[in-house]
Inverse folding.
């Protein structure tokens, strides 16, 4: 969220669809030299969106002070970002602030969305969900959107991947452990590129997810942060039909894990070939033959141990090695 006009332009292009309007008031960034968000004054812009268009609003919180300011502004949903989610102390402080703020003030809150940590840690993500659940336990959302003690306030998991990689295995583990927690996809951060967002959106239906959190900007090329991954509002239309009828498919989850592992496998093989090529250059410079029998013997013995440790047959691991070694020798010539 950058300026009041940017929000106005975006809202006009979205039209009358029913969305939760999420915008970052505070933006925890890696570099202090990048846009850090407008801060608390931007909460007034969010309130204007809510009052003018009747949209539910959401913003990221990273400290107890953020929580208090957001609740006072009538924010409907809080989300905890990936950087905060990596630190359980920070998450607990946020949870305590939510619990205290709701207990004392009775400010309205419909839910808390928790992104996966920046590191691939399903257990930490599950722990964060439990911390927030405990904070909002006993809250009831009334008809006017206010939260009072009585039942519960919803907790959501947001899967945004790790370093622009899907990390489907981590999300699958959380989904299996807590099928009761709605999980949304964040294809914008997962891909880091707007052009890749449509393909990732198909995973919402394939994996039976409950929706998506998408970064949208009226003029992405003018965005002050994450401009490469932001799409225009008019690009959303074709995706809405894909998330209306979701069915959880375990096979698709497993295939998503396999696809990601395959990508990692090929990336590793390609990296190995690059090293082999550099080894070849060194051998040429020092008059060393590409094939070194003693080295092959040492690797062969090591492969036997590796196969036993990984419960892979000796025949399989030898065949794989022969193929990789043959290509490595070609790279060294």
């Amino acid at each position: 969220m950058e300026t009041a006009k940017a929000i106005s332009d975006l809202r006009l292009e979205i039209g009358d669809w029913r969305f939760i309007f999420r915008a970052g008031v505070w933006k925890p960034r890696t570099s202090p030299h990048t846009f850090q968000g407008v801060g608390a004054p931007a909460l007034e812009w969010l309130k204007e969106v809510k009052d003018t268009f009747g949209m539910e609003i959401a913003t990221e919180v990273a400290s107890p002070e953020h929580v208090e300011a957001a609740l006072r502004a009538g924010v409907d949903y809080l989300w905890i970002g990936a950087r905060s989610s990596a630190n359980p102390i920070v998450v607990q402080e946020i949870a305590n602030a939510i619990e205290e703020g709701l207990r004392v003030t009775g400010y309205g809150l419909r839910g808390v969305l928790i992104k996966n940590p920046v590191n691939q840690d399903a257990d930490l993500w599950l722990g964060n969900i439990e911390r927030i659940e405990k904070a909002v336990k006993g809250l009831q959302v009334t008809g006017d959107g206010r939260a009072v003690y009585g039942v519960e306030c919803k907790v959501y998991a947001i899967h945004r991947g790790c370093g622009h990689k899907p990390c489907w295995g981590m999300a699958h583990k959380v989904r299996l452990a807590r099928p009761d927690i709605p999980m949304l996809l964040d294809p914008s951060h997962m891909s880091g590129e707007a052009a890749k967002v449509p393909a990732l959106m198909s995973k919402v239906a394939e994996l039976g997810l409950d929706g998506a959190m998408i970064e949208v900007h009226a003029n992405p090329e003018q965005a002050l942060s994450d401009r490469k991954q932001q799409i225009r509002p008019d690009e959303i239309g074709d995706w809405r039909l894909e998330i209306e009828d979701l069915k959880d498919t375990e096979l698709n989850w497993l295939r998503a894990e396999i696809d990601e592992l395959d990508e990692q496998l090929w990336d590793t093989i390609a990296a190995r070939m690059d090293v082999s090529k550099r080894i070849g250059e060194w051998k040429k410079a020092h008059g060393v033959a590409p094939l070194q029998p003693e080295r092959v013997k040492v690797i062969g013995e090591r492969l036997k141990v590796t196969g036993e440790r990984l419960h892979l047959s000796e025949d399989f691991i030898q065949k794989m090695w022969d193929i990789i070694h043959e290509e490595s020798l070609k790279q060294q010539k």
About this structure: The beta strands are 20-22, 56-60, 77-80, 111-115, 137-141, 147-152, 154-159, 183-185. The longest strand covers residues 147-152.
